From TrEMBL:
<keyword id="KW-1003">Cell membrane</keyword>
<feature type="transmembrane region" description="Helical">
    <location>
        <begin position="12"/>
        <end position="30"/>
    </location>
</feature>
<keyword id="KW-1133">Transmembrane helix</keyword>
<feature type="domain" description="Cytochrome b561 bacterial/Ni-hydrogenase">
    <location>
        <begin position="6"/>
        <end position="192"/>
    </location>
</feature>
<protein>
    <submittedName>
        <fullName>Cytochrome b561</fullName>
    </submittedName>
</protein>
<keyword id="KW-0472">Membrane</keyword>
<feature type="transmembrane region" description="Helical">
    <location>
        <begin position="116"/>
        <end position="139"/>
    </location>
</feature>
<dbReference type="GO" id="GO:0005886">
    <property type="term" value="C:plasma membrane"/>
</dbReference>
<dbReference type="Pfam" id="PF01292">
    <property type="entry name" value="Ni_hydr_CYTB"/>
</dbReference>
<dbReference type="GO" id="GO:0022904">
    <property type="term" value="P:respiratory electron transport chain"/>
</dbReference>
<feature type="transmembrane region" description="Helical">
    <location>
        <begin position="159"/>
        <end position="179"/>
    </location>
</feature>
<keyword id="KW-0812">Transmembrane</keyword>
<dbReference type="InterPro" id="IPR016174">
    <property type="entry name" value="Di-haem_cyt_TM"/>
</dbReference>
<dbReference type="GO" id="GO:0009055">
    <property type="term" value="F:electron transfer activity"/>
</dbReference>
<feature type="transmembrane region" description="Helical">
    <location>
        <begin position="74"/>
        <end position="95"/>
    </location>
</feature>
<dbReference type="InterPro" id="IPR011577">
    <property type="entry name" value="Cyt_b561_bac/Ni-Hgenase"/>
</dbReference>
Amino acid sequence: MASTSYTKAHRILHWLIAGVFLFILLTVLLRQNWMNKTQVGAIVAQKLSDKGIKLSPKDAESIGKAVRYPMWRYHVWAGYVLIGLYLIRMLVFRLQGSTFKSPFKKQLPAKERFKSMIYVVFYICFGLTLLTGMLIVWLPRGEAFIEAHHIAKLIHIQALYYSVAFIVLHLGGLVLGELGKDKGIISKMIHGG
């Protein structure tokens, strides 16, 4: 892949997607850890208790949820941006071609096949994550949709695992490429070439 060059459109999309993707991961990590509704609620309940005001655990959790709600909105809006970028990326792939080879070609070396398969799996998972995110936000909340909403949420939550795995594989592949036969691959993604 040493001879690969990246168009300006591809590079801009790559970095925009990476930035928004990492921002969304940050909102997930913050919501699951530092801004966890139970922890925030417990802090609020403790501070109120210090002043002689009692708060039930359920009410405290509800307050914790309200405190982190703006972060949820950022997550949703960033998701809309990511949907747009994903669709543009698919259009660019269609018009300019993909930057990775089809993993289904028989003559492809094992290393290239593995690399290409990771990208195919990533884009499928990425699309599924965007779809389930839209379902979580847009499915009606009626009785008929409770199960569908629950399934969409379960699938969407799993995105954290493939996202982290992809980032680790991607960065590891870049380091191996820079140290091996693909010297300058990072520079090409920044400056073109």
